[in-house]
Amino acid sequence: MKRVHYIDSYLMNPQHPVTVNIIGAGGTGSQVLTCMARLDVTLRALGHPGLFVTLYDPDTVTEANIGRQLFSPSELGLNKAQCLVTRINHFFGNDWKAEARHYPSVLKEIKRDEIANVTITCTDNIKSRLDLWKVLGKMPSSSYTDNNTPLYWMDLGNTQTAGQVVLGTVPKKIRQPTSGQYETVGSLKVITRFVKYARVKEEDSGPSCSLAEALEKQDLFINSTLAQLGCNILWKMFRNGMIEHQGVFLNLDTLKVNPIAV
C-alpha cells in the first residue's frame, strides 16, 4: 500500500495567509523567495489566502554574490534580506517582511509573531540547523491551529554540486484521515534526524572574495535547482493536500534526482 502524508488541514483552508519563515537569503534563499512569491500568486488565484513570508539574514551583498545569487551591482553593501523582499514586494505587490538579523536561537527570545506555520532553512552551516531544532522542537503544543502554529520545517542544503531537500513535521504527529487506499504517515523526520550533525566536524570556509572563488564552493545552478525541487514539494502539498515524497537528493554531476519517500 502506498504511503502518503496528508498535510495539516489548517494549511488547506486557513483563516489568514499561511506564514512562512525563510532563514538565509543567499544562493538558495534568494531563489526560494522568488519561488514562494510565484506560489503565493498561484494559491490566491485558486481562492486560497496565500502566503505571508518573513526573510531573515544579517549579511550584506558583496561582489562575490552577484551572478550566483539574485543580486545586482546597485545593491552592493545593502542587507540581503531587505534587498530581496523590497524587490519582491514591488514586483508582486506584497507586504512581506525582511529581518536584517539572525532568527532567534533561544526559545525565550522568540515573540509569538515570529513563529511561522512553515520554516524554510537555506543556511550554510550546521549550527544554525541544530539551534533551530532546539527551538522548534520545544514549541509548546496547542489545542488549536492558527498562523503562529509551527507545523513544518523544510531544509535545503548543498555542497558544490550536490544537495538535499528534507521536509519534516514540527509536531510529533500531524493528524491523518482514515484511508483505505493509502497508508497514512503522520510524522516526517526533520533534517537533524536524517543526518547526525552532532558528529560532523564543521569547518568555516569564510566569505568568498569573487564569483570565481564562490563557484569553487557552490556550482552556478545548484542553488536554483534545489530551490525549484523543494518548492515543488510545497506546491504539491497545497495543490493535492498530500505528498508521497518528503524530499530529494540531488547530484548535478550525474544529473540524478532521487526522491525521499514519506
Automatic annotation (TrEMBL):
One of its GO terms (molecular function) is ubiquitin-like modifier activating enzyme activity. Residues 19-135 form the THIF-type NAD/FAD binding fold domain. CDD domains: E1_enzyme_family. GO terms for cellular component: cytoplasm. Pfam families: ThiF. It comes from the Bacteria. Signal peptide: none annotated. SUPFAM superfamilies: Activating enzymes of the ubiquitin-like proteins. InterPro entries: PRTRC_ThiF, ThiF/MoeB/HesA, ThiF_NAD_FAD-bd, Ubiquitin-activating_enz. This is PRTRC system ThiF family protein.
